[in-house]
Amino acid sequence: MSHQSPHPPRFRPVAADRPLALWREPTGWRVTAGFLDLFAVPVQDGEPAGRRVFLARQGIGQVVLPLPLAEDWGVLACGGQDSVVCDLDAAPSAEDVDGWLAILGEAVSGDGAAAAGRALGEGHHALAEGENSVAARQPLWVRVLSGAVLWGDDHDPVTPETPPLPLCAGLRLNAGQPAEIVAVRSRDLMAEGNLETALAAAHHRLVAAIIRTTSHRQEMLARSIADRTRQSRRMMEAGYDTLARTITPGRPVPQPPAT
User: Fold this and answer.
1) What pLDDT is stored for residue 9 in this prediction?
2) What is the pLDDT of residue 222?
3) C-alpha to C-alpha distances, 234 to 174, 223, 224, 225, 239, nearest whole angstrom
4) For residue 139, which of 173, 183, 109 has the smallest C-alpha distance?
């Protein structure tokens, strides 16, 4: 029997000046034309209020899902001139979730680089104290059975009481103590009926991690701009001094320090 949609598909154009504010969206969207660029942006009184920082791009057939705010930052999805999305009339598939997690993991890394560590596949794993672990290929969901691990740069330990957390490109686990974990796929959580709950919890941690990365990048950029400004000022002052000595004969010329 074919699946009947509860309502006709709703199409929506999305442009740079008509973005999707993912912290306000009640449903997910699939890109049907063009693309969507994801940006981190400061949020004030529920509205974007600052410079956008590019995170990633989703193309035709890929999805974007609602994301919560974190530390007064949110994620915008902006399209091009001909970008169109269609609302999801059902929960995203396991494949959709895997693709979404992969793009968010890359946003956490800040440069798309994969995290380093022991590559994990599905199944049970024993982690030694201090050991780093990453997903071998497709995104995985990790449950801690005993002990505790750290997820990404989050300082809150992941314990057996913590909901499953995703492990994908840009993210890694660090065992602060010997730990036993089990890694499963999105399809497994979906079969259990736990994917939606796990994804909602993961979104909070993922957005917070993305904002930490974004803030760090902004600090580094500001520092680089300040360094270049100081260097330019020194070069300008040196140029003016050379010009002054050239057009003002008899001006004492500084001597190099004695060696």
Assistant:
1) 76
2) 56
3) 45, 17, 15, 14, 9
4) 183
Tell me the C-alpha distance between 166 and 64, whole Å.
Answer: 17
Mind listing the pLDDT tens digit for each residue in 27-63? 999 999 999 999 999 999 999 998 899 999 999 999 9
Report how far apart, in Å, the C-alpha atoms of 106 and of each of 88, 252, 257 are: 23, 58, 51
Query: What does the alpha-carbon distance between residue 76 and residue 47 come to, in Å, rounded to a whole number?
Result: 10
3-state secondary structure of 149: strand
> Helix 94-109 and helix 195-247: axis angle, to 10°?
30
The CA dihedral of 96, 97, 102, 103, to the nearest 10 degrees, is 70
Which tokens in the block code for residue 207? Answer: 């957005």
**3-class DSSP state of 56:** strand
Question: 181 in helix, strand or coil?
Answer: strand
Predicted local distance difference test score (pLDDT) of residue 96: 96
- Here the tokens at position 117 are 């560590």
Nearest to 171 by CA among 200, 127, 140: 140
Q: What is the mean pLDDT of residues 201-223?
A: 78
Lowest mean pLDDT among 8-17, 92-101, 150-159, 210-219: 210-219
CB 172 within 8 A of CB 132: yes
Contact 168, 100 (CB under 8 A): no
Q: Is 116 exposed, middle or buried (0-12, 13-18, 19+ CB in 10 A)?
A: exposed
Residue 21 pairs in a beta bridge with 76
